[in-house]
Protein backbone atom coordinates (compact mmCIF):
# COMPACT_ATOMS: atom_id res chain seq x y z
CA UNK A 1 0.00 0.00 0.00
CA UNK A 2 1.32 3.44 -0.88
CA UNK A 3 -0.86 5.43 1.49
CA UNK A 4 -2.60 4.72 4.79
CA UNK A 5 -6.35 4.01 4.63
CA UNK A 6 -8.92 6.82 4.42
CA UNK A 7 -9.63 8.39 7.82
CA UNK A 8 -6.13 7.87 9.24
CA UNK A 9 -4.50 11.05 10.51
CA UNK A 10 -0.98 11.24 11.92
CA UNK A 11 -0.18 14.37 13.97
CA UNK A 12 3.61 14.19 14.53
CA UNK A 13 4.83 16.02 17.62
CA UNK A 14 1.32 17.05 18.65
CA UNK A 15 2.45 17.11 22.29
CA UNK A 16 5.62 19.14 22.98
CA UNK A 17 8.09 17.79 25.58
CA UNK A 18 6.50 19.60 28.57
CA UNK A 19 3.08 18.17 27.73
CA UNK A 20 4.62 14.70 27.29
CA UNK A 21 6.00 14.99 30.83
CA UNK A 22 2.54 15.98 32.12
CA UNK A 23 0.98 13.03 30.31
CA UNK A 24 3.57 10.67 31.77
CA UNK A 25 2.84 11.96 35.27
CA UNK A 26 -0.89 11.34 34.69
CA UNK A 27 -0.17 7.81 33.41
CA UNK A 28 1.99 7.09 36.46
CA UNK A 29 -0.87 8.16 38.74
CA UNK A 30 -3.23 5.79 36.91
CA UNK A 31 -0.74 2.90 37.07
CA UNK A 32 -0.23 3.48 40.82
CA UNK A 33 -3.94 2.65 41.34
CA UNK A 34 -4.45 0.24 38.42
CA UNK A 35 -1.21 -1.73 38.03
CA UNK A 36 0.03 -3.00 34.66
CA UNK A 37 -0.90 -6.67 34.25
CA UNK A 38 0.09 -9.44 31.84
CA UNK A 39 -2.72 -9.97 29.32
CA UNK A 40 -3.22 -13.50 27.97
CA UNK A 41 -4.76 -14.58 24.69
CA UNK A 42 -8.18 -16.20 24.44
CA UNK A 43 -8.14 -20.04 24.66
CA UNK A 44 -4.33 -20.53 24.35
CA UNK A 45 -3.58 -18.46 27.43
CA UNK A 46 -0.33 -17.37 25.77
CA UNK A 47 1.08 -14.21 27.35
CA UNK A 48 1.17 -11.05 25.27
CA UNK A 49 4.50 -9.19 25.30
CA UNK A 50 2.78 -5.89 26.11
CA UNK A 51 1.77 -4.97 29.68
CA UNK A 52 -1.65 -3.31 30.02
CA UNK A 53 -3.98 -1.30 32.18
CA UNK A 54 -6.80 1.17 31.58
CA UNK A 55 -8.53 4.26 32.81
CA UNK A 56 -12.12 5.32 32.16
CA UNK A 57 -15.55 3.88 32.88
CA UNK A 58 -14.63 0.79 30.86
CA UNK A 59 -11.33 -0.97 30.19
CA UNK A 60 -10.29 -3.45 27.50
CA UNK A 61 -9.06 -6.74 28.97
CA UNK A 62 -8.21 -10.23 27.76
CA UNK A 63 -7.61 -13.59 29.40
CA UNK A 64 -7.74 -17.24 28.40
CA UNK A 65 -11.05 -18.03 30.06
CA UNK A 66 -13.18 -15.08 28.97
CA UNK A 67 -11.37 -13.65 25.93
CA UNK A 68 -11.43 -10.05 24.70
CA UNK A 69 -13.94 -7.74 26.37
CA UNK A 70 -14.59 -4.41 28.03
CA UNK A 71 -15.29 -4.34 31.76
CA UNK A 72 -15.63 -1.73 34.51
CA UNK A 73 -13.05 -3.26 36.87
CA UNK A 74 -9.36 -4.20 36.89
CA UNK A 75 -8.96 -7.96 36.28
CA UNK A 76 -6.43 -8.38 39.12
CA UNK A 77 -7.47 -5.87 41.80
CA UNK A 78 -11.22 -5.96 41.08
CA UNK A 79 -11.29 -2.18 41.57
CA UNK A 80 -12.99 0.29 39.20
CA UNK A 81 -10.58 1.88 36.69
CA UNK A 82 -9.30 5.39 37.55
CA UNK A 83 -10.90 8.20 35.56
CA UNK A 84 -9.41 9.46 32.28
CA UNK A 85 -7.03 12.41 32.92
CA UNK A 86 -8.31 15.80 31.80
CA UNK A 87 -5.46 16.34 29.33
CA UNK A 88 -6.66 13.26 27.40
CA UNK A 89 -10.33 14.32 27.50
CA UNK A 90 -9.19 17.66 26.06
CA UNK A 91 -7.25 15.88 23.30
CA UNK A 92 -10.32 13.82 22.38
CA UNK A 93 -12.50 16.96 22.20
CA UNK A 94 -9.88 18.62 20.00
CA UNK A 95 -9.15 15.87 17.47
CA UNK A 96 -11.86 13.18 17.49
CA UNK A 97 -14.62 15.09 15.72
CA UNK A 98 -17.02 13.03 17.86
CA UNK A 99 -19.53 14.85 20.06
CA UNK A 100 -19.41 12.51 23.08
CA UNK A 101 -16.56 11.74 25.48
CA UNK A 102 -14.42 8.60 25.33
CA UNK A 103 -15.36 5.78 27.71
CA UNK A 104 -12.09 3.84 27.73
CA UNK A 105 -8.38 4.55 27.61
CA UNK A 106 -6.22 1.47 27.10
CA UNK A 107 -2.62 1.88 28.29
CA UNK A 108 -0.07 -0.39 26.60
CA UNK A 109 3.51 -0.59 27.88
CA UNK A 110 6.17 -1.99 25.51
CA UNK A 111 9.59 -3.11 26.68
CA UNK A 112 12.44 -2.99 24.13
CA UNK A 113 11.43 -6.43 22.77
CA UNK A 114 7.65 -6.19 22.93
CA UNK A 115 5.46 -6.08 19.84
CA UNK A 116 1.82 -6.40 18.84
CA UNK A 117 0.66 -8.61 16.00
CA UNK A 118 -1.66 -7.39 13.26
CA UNK A 119 -5.27 -7.22 14.48
CA UNK A 120 -8.51 -5.30 14.18
CA UNK A 121 -10.10 -3.40 17.07
CA UNK A 122 -13.70 -4.58 16.99
CA UNK A 123 -14.79 -5.19 20.56
CA UNK A 124 -16.59 -1.83 20.61
CA UNK A 125 -20.22 -1.40 19.54
CA UNK A 126 -19.78 2.12 18.18
CA UNK A 127 -17.47 2.25 15.15
CA UNK A 128 -18.69 5.75 14.27
CA UNK A 129 -16.23 7.14 16.80
CA UNK A 130 -12.51 7.14 15.93
CA UNK A 131 -9.76 5.69 18.11
CA UNK A 132 -7.27 8.37 19.23
CA UNK A 133 -3.73 7.17 20.02
CA UNK A 134 -0.88 8.91 21.88
CA UNK A 135 2.72 7.63 21.81
CA UNK A 136 5.19 8.29 24.66
CA UNK A 137 8.79 7.14 25.05
CA UNK A 138 10.78 5.14 22.54
CA UNK A 139 9.89 5.14 18.83
CA UNK A 140 8.07 2.21 17.27
CA UNK A 141 7.47 0.84 13.81
CA UNK A 142 3.69 0.89 13.33
CA UNK A 143 2.10 -0.91 10.38
CA UNK A 144 -1.44 -0.47 9.06
CA UNK A 145 -3.27 -2.18 6.19
CA UNK A 146 -6.85 -2.33 5.03
CA UNK A 147 -10.00 -3.93 6.36
CA UNK A 148 -8.97 -7.37 5.03
CA UNK A 149 -6.00 -9.18 6.58
CA UNK A 150 -4.54 -9.76 3.11
CA UNK A 151 -4.63 -6.08 2.10
CA UNK A 152 -1.23 -4.45 1.53
CA UNK A 153 0.21 -2.47 4.44
CA UNK A 154 2.17 0.72 5.03
CA UNK A 155 4.69 1.24 7.84
CA UNK A 156 5.43 4.40 9.72
CA UNK A 157 7.48 5.38 12.71
CA UNK A 158 5.54 6.71 15.71
CA UNK A 159 7.53 8.97 18.05
CA UNK A 160 7.01 10.35 21.54
CA UNK A 161 4.35 13.06 21.47
CA UNK A 162 2.74 11.84 18.25
CA UNK A 163 -1.03 11.51 18.04
CA UNK A 164 -2.87 9.28 15.54
CA UNK A 165 -6.58 9.48 14.79
CA UNK A 166 -8.12 6.30 13.36
CA UNK A 167 -11.50 7.19 11.91
CA UNK A 168 -13.51 6.37 8.81
CA UNK A 169 -12.25 3.33 6.90
CA UNK A 170 -9.09 3.14 9.02
CA UNK A 171 -11.19 2.45 12.13
CA UNK A 172 -11.52 -1.21 11.09
CA UNK A 173 -8.10 -1.54 9.45
CA UNK A 174 -5.65 -4.27 10.47
CA UNK A 175 -2.71 -2.77 12.35
CA UNK A 176 0.10 -3.67 14.73
CA UNK A 177 3.49 -2.75 16.15
CA UNK A 178 6.40 -4.61 14.50
CA UNK A 179 9.17 -3.35 16.76
CA UNK A 180 10.39 -0.83 19.31
CA UNK A 181 13.52 1.25 18.66
CA UNK A 182 15.31 1.17 22.04
CA UNK A 183 16.96 4.30 23.44
CA UNK A 184 15.32 6.68 20.98
CA UNK A 185 13.69 8.79 23.74
CA UNK A 186 14.75 9.97 27.19
CA UNK A 187 11.17 10.49 28.47
CA UNK A 188 11.05 7.12 30.28
CA UNK A 189 13.98 6.69 32.64
CA UNK A 190 14.15 2.93 32.07
CA UNK A 191 13.22 3.04 28.40
CA UNK A 192 10.30 1.43 26.62
CA UNK A 193 7.19 2.83 24.99
CA UNK A 194 3.72 3.72 26.23
CA UNK A 195 0.71 3.90 23.93
CA UNK A 196 -2.59 5.37 25.06
CA UNK A 197 -5.74 4.70 23.03
CA UNK A 198 -8.92 6.64 23.72
CA UNK A 199 -12.06 4.81 22.68
CA UNK A 200 -15.80 5.08 22.57
CA UNK A 201 -17.21 1.64 23.44
CA UNK A 202 -21.02 2.02 23.51
CA UNK A 203 -23.37 4.02 21.34
CA UNK A 204 -24.29 7.31 23.04
C1 LIG B 1 -5.94 1.43 13.86
N1 LIG B 1 -2.19 -0.23 19.84
O1 LIG B 1 -4.18 -0.82 21.53
S1 LIG B 1 -1.69 2.56 18.32
C2 LIG B 1 -4.30 -1.22 20.36
O2 LIG B 1 0.91 1.23 19.53
C3 LIG B 1 -3.20 -0.96 19.40
O3 LIG B 1 -0.02 0.17 21.15
C4 LIG B 1 -1.02 0.00 19.05
O4 LIG B 1 -3.28 -1.40 18.30
C5 LIG B 1 0.03 0.52 19.97
O5 LIG B 1 -5.30 -1.80 19.93
C6 LIG B 1 -1.27 0.90 17.90
C7 LIG B 1 -2.48 3.12 16.84
C8 LIG B 1 -3.82 2.49 16.64
C9 LIG B 1 -4.68 2.29 17.68
C10 LIG B 1 -5.96 1.80 17.47
C11 LIG B 1 -6.39 1.51 16.19
C12 LIG B 1 -4.23 2.17 15.38
C13 LIG B 1 -5.51 1.70 15.15
C14 LIG B 1 -7.69 1.07 15.93
C15 LIG B 1 -8.10 0.84 14.66
C16 LIG B 1 -7.21 1.00 13.62
FE1 LIG C 1 -5.35 -2.04 17.97
Automatic annotation (TrEMBL):
**Which residues does the UniProt record annotate as the domain Fe2OG dioxygenase?**
101-202
> Which cofactor does the UniProt annotation name?
Fe(2+)
User: At the top level of its lineage, which domain of life is listed?
Assistant: Bacteria
- Which PROSITE patterns does the record cross-reference, listed alphabetically? FE2OG_OXY
TM stretches of this protein = none
Q: Which Gene3D superfamilies match?
A: Alpha-ketoglutarate-dependent dioxygenase AlkB-like
Q: Which InterPro entries match?
A: Alkb, AlkB-like, AlkB-like_sf, Oxoglu/Fe-dep_dioxygenase_dom
Please verify whether the record's keywords include Zinc: no
What are the GO MF terms of this UniProt record? dioxygenase activity
Pfam families (alphabetical): 2OG-FeII_Oxy_2
Q: Which UniProt keywords apply?
A: Dioxygenase, Iron, Metal-binding, Oxidoreductase
Q: Which PANTHER family match?
A: ALKYLATED DNA REPAIR PROTEIN ALKB-RELATED (PTHR16557), NUCLEIC ACID DIOXYGENASE ALKBH1 (PTHR16557:SF2)
Protein name (record): Alpha-ketoglutarate-dependent dioxygenase AlkB
Q: Which organism is it from?
A: Ollibium composti
